[in-house]
Write a structure and sequence with these properties.
By secondary structure, the chain is an alpha/beta fold. The chain contains twelve helices and 15 strands. Strands 6, 7, 8, 9, 10, 13, 14 and 15 form an eight-stranded mixed β-sheet that branches. It has a five-stranded parallel β-sheet with strand order 2-1-3-4-5, with helices on both faces. Helix 1 runs parallel beside helix 11 (310-325).
C-alpha cells in the first residue's frame, strides 16, 4: 500500500516542461513551481542525483539518457512535450531529503528517475513512499533498499548481491587469484558491495581496509595490501578513488589483479589511473553493452558520449513515458504500471519483482587493455 496518495490533474495532452521550448511554453529546471502553458497538462519526470561535485559525471551520464528518451518521445508529441526537472544532491544522503521534499511538492512530476546513489535512496525512500511517488533508479544497487517495503521504489540494475558474488567468482576462478585484499570507501553502495565480495571469497580473503571519498593518498592501504601477500585487490567504490588506488598500487610494485564494480566501470577510471596503471583492470557491471546505435543517438542529443548508467536512465525514463502513453497520470496508477512493466530495454530486459528489483540481470566483466576500457566486448560471468 502507498502512504498518502497524490493524484495528478486529468490528462488533456502531454506536458511541456523544463529544458524544452515549444508552443506550450517552458519551465525552469530548478523551479518546482514552474508550469507550462494553458493547453498543457504540465507533466515532467524528475532526476535526483549528483550533477556537480566528485560524482557529477555519473549524474550527467544519467540525465543524458533521460534527455535522449525525452527527445525521442517529444518528436512524436511536439504539440505538448514532457520535460525534465533536475535536483542536484551531489550524491549526498544529507542533501537529498530536502530535495525529496521539493519533488513530492511538485504536482507536475509523474515519476522520479533516481535516486542515483544508494545512500540517498535509503535517506529518501520513505519520503517518496509515503507520498506515493513512483521512482526507478538507474544505479542504486545496495541490497537493503528493496528490503524496506517501499512499494514505490524500483531499479533497472542488478543489486550488489549478484554483482559481488560474480566478482568474487571471476577473481578466483577466471583470474586465478588465491589471496584477495578488499577495500571500500565506506559509502552504503561501496561497503555493501565489498561486504558481499568478502563473504563470497571465503578463505581467499586475506585482508580488508577502508578509505574515504576524496582521499588522494592511498599509501597506508597500499602498504597493507603488499604486506598481506595479496595477488588481487577488489575495490568497492567509484572511479575517482579506484583510479588513484590502482595507480599508487602499481607505483609501489603491485603486479596482481585489480577489480572494481559498476561504480568504476566508466572511461573516467582510465583517466584517473593513467593508461599504464589501468591496463589489466577488470570492472564489473550488471548490464551489457549498449545497442550499436545508442551512442550515436545519445551524442546527437547531448554533444557527449554515453557513459556509465546512461542506458539504465534511458530505460527508466521510457517506463514513465510508456505509462503516460497508456493514459496513466496519478501516482498510484503510474506505480502500478511500473510494477507490471516488461520490455527489452537498451540496458537489457526490464521487468520487476514484487520488491522492485529487476528480475533478470547478467553481470559482465569489462577489461582495460592498451589504455582503453573495452565497453563493446565484455565477458558475461556465469
Amino acid at each position: 500500500m502507498f502512504g498518502s496518495k497524490k493524484s495528478l490533474p486529468a490528462l488533456a495532452v502531454l506536458a511541456t516542461a523544463s529544458l524544452v521550448l515549444s508552443a506550450c511554453g517552458s519551465t525552469d529546471d530548478n523551479d518546482p513551481a514552474a508550469s507550462g502553458g494553458d493547453e498543457c497538462g504540465n507533466y515532467n519526470v524528475a532526476f535526483l542525483g549528483a550533477l556537480t561535485g566528485d560524482a557529477g559525471a555519473l549524474g550527467l551520464n544519467m540525465t543524458g539518457g533521460i534527455k535522449l528518451a525525452l527527445d525521442e518521445y517529444n518528436k512524436d508529441h511536439s504539440d505538448c512535450e514532457v520535460g525534465l526537472k533536475e535536483f542536484d544532491s551531489q550524491g549526498s544522503p544529507d542533501k537529498a531529503p530536502a530535495l525529496a521534499t521539493q519533488i513530492i511538492g511538485d504536482d507536475s512530476i509523474i515519476g522520479l528517475v533516481g535516486p542515483g546513489f544508494s545512500g540517498e535512496s535509503l535517506a529518501t525512500g520513505k519520503t517518496f513512499f509515503e507520498a506515493g511517488l513512483p521512482s526507478v533508479s538507474p544505479s542504486a544497487t545496495n541490497v537493503t533498499i528493496t528490503e524496506q517495503g517501499w512499494t514505490t521504489w524500483h531499479r533497472v540494475i542488478g543489486n550488489d548481491a549478484a554483482q559481488g558474488a560474480a566478482g568474487a567468482k571471476y577473481l578466483t576462478e577466471t583470474a586465478g587469484a588465491t589471496k584477495v585484499f578488499v577495500v571500500d570507501d565506506a559509502q552504503d553502495y561501496s561497503k555493501g558491495l565489498a561486504d558481499v565480495v568478502k563473504g563470497a571469497l571465503g578463505d581467499a580473503l586475506v585482508g580488508d581496509d577502508q578509505i574515504q571519498v576524496g582521499q588522494t593518498d592511498m599509501s597506508a592501504v597500499v602498504t597493507k595490501v603488499k604486506s598481506s601477500g595479496a595477488d588481487a585487490v577488489y575495490y568497492g567504490g567509484y572511479y575517482a578513488e579506484a583510479g588513484l588506488l590502482v595507480k599508487q598500487l602499481r607505483q609501489a610494485g603491485f603486479k596482481g589483479t585489480f577489480m572494481s564494480g559498476d561504480g568504476s566501470q566508466d572511461p573516467a577510471f582510465v583517466k584517473a589511473a593513467g593508461a599504464q596503471a589501468a591496463n589489466g583492470a577488470i570492472l564489473t557491471a550488471p548490464a551489457g553493452p549498449a545497442p550499436a546505435d545508442f551512442n550515436e543517438k545519445y551524442s546527437a542529443v547531448n554533444s557527449a558520449d554515453a557513459g556509465l548508467y546512461s542506458t539504465q536512465a534511458y530505460d527508466a525514463t521510457n517506463i514513465f513515458l510508456a505509462a503516460l502513453e497508456d493514459g496513466k497520470t496519478s501516482h498510484e496508477d503510474v506505480n502500478t504500471f511500473v510494477g507490471a512493466y516488461t520490455a527489452e530495454g537498451a540496458s537489457g530486459p526490464v521487468a520487476f519483482d514484487d520488491k522492485g528489483d529487476i528480475t533478470s540481470s547478467t553481470i559482465y566483466a569489462y577489461l582495460v587493455s592498451d589504455g582503453v576500457m573495452d565497453v563493446a566486448n565484455p565477458t558475461p560471468i556465469k
